[in-house]
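User: I've been trying to design a sequence by hand for this structure and keep getting stuck. Would you show me what you'd pick, starting by listing the structure so we're on the same page?

Assistant: Good idea, let's start from the same input. This is the structure you sent:
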């Protein structure tokens, strides 16, 4: 695969968001990572606020994929897989991916990924891979409206972990998967993502971004990172932008 990418970490204190800080760095080396103590304006999908208090792991990785924009969902899912593997290696816990970008543990959200991509023509020229993990704080430190669906690593383990070790493990996994992604080893990555995905083969409730709700069976994940669902006699493919949320029945 040639020379390995070098990971460079920029550590910050309390910021608006690591995505903004990474964007403002301009032209930097690939795999430059911006890590913050907390975020006052962390953002998830569809512009939702992502609560990011001290004690969590909040960072953005700067990459230059130079791959087709059609593969952007797979890049997001690869990042989610890296987060799952890093958490597992650090804690022994077994988180799973809830398509397209959430990390779940024992039925509750423990982390998430947000990818922001610059596209020229059909080529992703830059991708900012934002990651948030609820780590060394309790669920009751989050706003009341999200507590029922959230968990933290400290809550699940009963003790704190090393954020530095967690970051190191996630980044090592992400570098491996990202280099494989750029080298075209998509089928191998897909296989591992599907093994780590929730709800495969199960009936799900799908809330589309335009407000429609579907009940379907989650059948597969294709080479572009789209899900294939069975809706009565029809099999349809959905991209992350099509879906507001997906939940088990």
């Amino acid at each position: 695969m040639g020379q390995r990418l070098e990971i460079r970490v920029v550590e910050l204190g309390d910021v608006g968001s690591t995505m903004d800080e990474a964007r403002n760095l301009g032209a930097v080396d690939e795999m430059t990572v911006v890590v913050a103590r907390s975020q006052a304006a962390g953002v998830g999908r569809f512009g939702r606020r992502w609560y990011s208090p001290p004690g969590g792991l909040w960072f953005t990785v700067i990459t230059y994929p130079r791959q087709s924009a059609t593969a952007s969902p797979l890049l997001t899912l690869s990042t989610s897989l890296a987060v799952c593997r890093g958490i597992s290696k650090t804690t022994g816990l077994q988180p799973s991916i809830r398509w397209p970008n959430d990390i779940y543990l024992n039925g509750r959200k423990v982390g998430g990924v947000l990818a922001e991509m610059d596209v020229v023509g059909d080529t992703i020229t830059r991708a900012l891979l934002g990651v948030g993990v609820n780590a060394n704080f309790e669920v009751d430190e989050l706003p009341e409206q999200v507590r029922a669906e959230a968990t933290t690593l400290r809550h699940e383990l009963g003790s704190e972990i090393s954020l530095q070790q967690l970051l190191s493990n996630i980044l090592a996994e992400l570098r491996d998967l990202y280099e494989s992604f750029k080298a075209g080893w998509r089928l191998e990555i897909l296989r591992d993502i599907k093994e780590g995905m929730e709800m495969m083969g199960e009936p799900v409730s799908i809330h589309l971004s335009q407000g429609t709700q579907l009940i379907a069976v989650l059948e597969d994940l294709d080479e572009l990172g789209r899900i294939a669902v069975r809706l009565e006699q029809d099999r349809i493919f959905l991209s992350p932008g099509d879906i507001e949320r997906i939940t088990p029945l």
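That's my pick for every position. To get oriented when you compare it with your attempt: The first strand starts at residue 8 and ends at 11. The chain has a mean pLDDT of 93.
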